[in-house]
Design a protein that fits this description.
About 35% of the residues lie in helices and about 25% in strands. It is an alpha+beta fold and about 110 residues long. The chain has a five-stranded antiparallel beta sheet with strand order 4-3-2-1-5. Helix 1 packs antiparallel against helix 2. Keywords: Ribonucleoprotein, Ribosomal protein.
Length: about 110
Amino acid sequence: MARVHPTPEIGEIVEVRQGREAGRYMVVIDRSEDRWVWLADGEGRTVERPKKKNVLHVRPTGKRAGKVLERLHTMGKVTDADLRYSLRTFHQEQSKDAREDGGDAERGVD
């Protein structure tokens, strides 16, 4: 039986799992009905040149880039600066959560 992989929503932050950009976080800026998403991070992959990626090759984080969604609804487009801001905020939240949850565990302190 084939595994069903849900297509990430527009504005969702995903981790790239395959390819040259593996390990990087990007924002879904467009998607197709089948299995493709277009990703951008505002730096290496800009809004003008997003990366087309198979949904099997990304891992959804469950987080939404609120500023990106807001801009898409109000202006109908998003800027590279909006993407950079959203990803920077996401990384800050991730590092804050890591410090709170596993700071002692990572250092081997009980």
